What does this fold into?
Amino acid sequence: MTRHGTQAAAATPAHDSALPAGRAGARRATMIADVRDGLSRKQKELPPKYFYDERGSKLFEAITRLPEYYLTRTERRLLGRYAGPLVRALRPRTLVELGAGSAAKTRVLLDAMRDAGCGEHYVPVDVSGEFLAATARRLRAEYPGLRVTPAIADIAVELGLPSNLPHPVLFAFLGSTIGNFDASAAATLLGRVRHAMGPFDRLLLGADLRKDVAVVEAAYNDAQGVTAEFNRNVLHVLNRELGAEFDVERFEHRALYVPARHRIEMHLVSRQEQAVRIPVVGRVTLRQGESIRTEISCKYDRPSIARLLRRSGLALEQWHTDNAGFALAVAMPMP
Ligand code: TRP
It folds into this structure.
């Protein structure tokens, strides 16, 4: 048994050359590297993208319907009010949606585009390939005449957009997914969007706002325990895909707001001292009460969004909010 959690990370990638080729092999190799890197840090971490296998995607859908999870509901209400005018002013030929998921809110935008007679092409971008394919199939059936080109990409690394998209393009980045990136990663990501933009393109950004801590914490720690199940799902994914031996019951979900950083953090807290075997990666040890951080969700206000956009070469053009504390921002490329 190793005494240090960090020892796992020191294991050499001896098996990498034996990895299967192709997309599945690449995913596995990336996952091994991510897990090895994340679990060797002082504050252990796992990247949030591994939440979203089929079960995780469904659990997240369930989160968006929880009474405590005000974000989705509020954003949809704002979209209902502002999508029409935005689409009529911009007349986008393409909608690119980052982190599309099941595209539930996308219909509001696609309907507005259809009503304005301007949408030709929809490009949903997501890490979860299976989910994306199902979404694309459904949307093709619902919007005959709309070209749907799904792009499987980890937006933390690349956008994976097809070339020669018809402009103007409306980029949509909803659900406050931007908040799941720290400040520098968020600026890099939005910079990538900026780079793909033409002068008449726009970015529609959904951002959760700073508010009463109890309200935020309840949204990430619901009474029914759906978020807890979602959080622990990442361990199921590692067990299945890497053959890791996490005993999921030995981890407790915790969501805590860190006021100094204006963000809520999701952790999996070890209920006891334990060692977990992860093939290829090694053995990871956790003390009782030690946690693995699985997600951050930053909360904003208007100045912090304007600053983030500016860092990415974008300018805040419109700002729409309501009293539930969520905002839709429209950004344009800075000349
Ligand atoms: N983008 C969502 C958010 O920051 C993602 C999310 C919601 C989430 N609930 C979660 C991520 C629970 C991890 C755990 O609100």
Notes: The domain at 1-335 is CATH 3.40.50.150 (Rossmann fold). The longest strand covers residues 251-258. Residues 70-90 form the longest helix (21 residues).
